[in-house]
Write a structure and sequence with these properties.
This protein is an alpha/beta fold. The chain has 16 helices and 17 strands. The strands form five sheets. The protein has a seven-stranded mixed β-sheet, sandwiched between helices. A four-stranded antiparallel β-sheet has the order 13-14-17-16, with helices on one face. A two-stranded antiparallel sheet has the order 1-2.
């Protein structure tokens, strides 16, 4: 518990400091905020921590970035944002970050156990060993040592292998997805996504003017394969975005033969597969099948980030792709990411010494323990209000209300109790999953989670009888 408390929430302090600056700013004109380095020096934290806090505020729409000029506030509305304003996702995020809120909506495994301590220790050792480096100050495609470590980690066989030059590292997951869609000329096309789907992916596809076609997953985590085949026949799909192992937020695992069939159909139709490996290491069963085990390697892009495993000090995103190397190089050079070489080297060393593998074993065990603990509370306090499918990995339950209700209204009820949930509809562009919510077990377990679950059941019951 000490590790979690000491190492997990530095970015939250920065976030709330920035929130104070934003709220003190004029409501009619934008104002420039401190640079990443200025703020890091002012608050005594790392640049990565300030970057992560700025990214959260940008996701919420409170600030925006201008190339070469930095971050600026947005004019604040006269009235506070509410769920009925039409932007439920932003309201969930803003509410979860208010002081005193119990966020049952989180999806951050590193809240239970981060690697930020070992990462910063490794970084200090590297700084002492190599006080002056003759290498370029910033590597626009990522630090070579980290690119090589990722290529080695993702190599499984002579057929399924990667080289360091096929790995690209950017500031965060959103950035590398944006550049990948541009490098492969997929903007304005049609994408197939599993549904429910990560809100971050849905937002990035929307930003690229990509029309999203959602394919629902059953409670068992499987597609209706005949329906999927019919969809691929009638729709001009150019890319499919699918979870590598457990489907997030659902937490179920698709059988290997289903994944092979899906990959065969994608190959037949020359469709790009974007494999989301963000949660790929968080399956409770050993050696789960991944889409990349069956995909055409020349129509495959794998993307992920480090922060789910390491924590907020490692917000970088990365992609692996064999094709369009010249386009990737051009776009990454134009973007000019200025990422700490020493921080990237430190991450590479954690992979090289197997520290991350040891950490993952412990973290998965902690997630499994907390999942069982929350499952017991859901059974104890549910009062037949919800349907529970035990997740096979990840950090959350995908909970379904047994009776038809609007989970957004349950969300609003719980805000009065200072509890935040993630209504299911934020995981769909089409407004599906209104009877569902994502309920995390990466929580502050020092708080009375049982009481919060009981209040959730009461809110669902009150909404049903309203």
């Amino acid at each position: 518990m000490t590790v979690r408390k000491d190492a997990s929430f530095a970015y939250q302090t920065v976030y709330h400091y920035l929130l104070g600056l934003i709220e003190a700013a004029s409501g009619t004109t934008e104002q420039k905020l401190p640079s990443l380095r200025q703020l890091a020096l002012r608050l005594g934290v790392s640049v990565s921590t300030t970057k992560y806090a700025y990214a959260l505020l940008e996701d919420e729409g409170r600030i925006h970035a201008k190339a070469r000029f930095g971050y600026f506030t947005r004019p604040m509305p006269a009235a506070p944002v509410t769920a009925s304003s039409g932007n439920l996702l932003d309201h969930v995020f803003a509410s979860a970050r208010q002081p005193g809120m119990l966020a049952l909506s989180s999806d951050a495994p590193a809240m239970l156990l981060s690697l930020q301590g070992p990462l910063l220790t490794m970084e200090r050792e590297l700084t002492r060993q190599y006080p002056r480096s003759h290498a370029p100050l910033y590597q626009p495609l990522g630090e070579p040592e980290l690119r090589a470590a990722l290529a080695e980690r993702y190599t499984r066989s002579a057929h399924n292998h990667w080289q360091a030059e096929q790995v690209y590292i950017g500031a965060d997951l959103r950035s590398v997805l944006e550049l990948s869609l541009g490098a492969l000329n997929l903007g304005g096309s049609v994408a197939l996504v599993e549904s429910p789907c990560s809100w971050a992916i849905l937002r990035q596809l929307q930003a690229a003017n990509i029309r999203v076609v959602e394919m629902p997953l059953g409670d068992d985590g499987r597609f209706n394969l005949p329906a999927l085949r019919a969809l691929l026949t009638r729709e001009p799909v150019r890319l499919a975005v699918l979870s590598s192992t457990v489907n997030i937020p659902q937490g179920q695992l698709m059988p290997a033969h289903d994944k092979q069939q899906v990959c065969d159909w994608l190959t037949e139709r020359d469709i790009w597969l974007f494999e989301n490996d963000t949660w790929g290491e968080f399956c409770f069963s050993p050696a789960p099948a991944r889409y990349r085990d069956f995909a055409d390697p020349n129509k495959l892009l794998v993307f992920s980030t480090f922060d789910k495993i390491i924590g907020s000090e490692a917000p970088y995103g990365y992609v692996l792709c064999r094709q369009q190397g010249a386009q990737f190089h051009r776009l990454f050079l134009e973007r000019g990411f200025r990422l700490s070489p020493v921080r990237q080297k430190a991450i590479a060393r954690l992979y090289g010494c197997k520290r991350i593998d040891q950490h993952l074993i412990t973290l998965r065990a902690m997630l499994l323990k907390r999942m069982k603990q929350l499952h017991a509370l859901l059974k104890e306090h549910g009062n037949d209000q919800w349907q529970v499918v035990v997740p096979q990995g990840g950090a959350s339950f995908w909970l379904k209300a047994v009776r038809p209700i609007d989970m957004q209204r349950v969300f609003e009820r719980l805000l009065t109790e200072r509890i935040v949930i993630a209504p299911g509809e934020i995981f769909s562009q089409q407004g599906a999953w209104k009877q569902y919510l994502r309920l995390s077990y990466t929580l502050d377990w020092d708080k009375d989670i049982g009481h919060a679950v009981k209040q959730l059941a009461q809110a669902i019951g009150a909404e049903h009888h309203a």
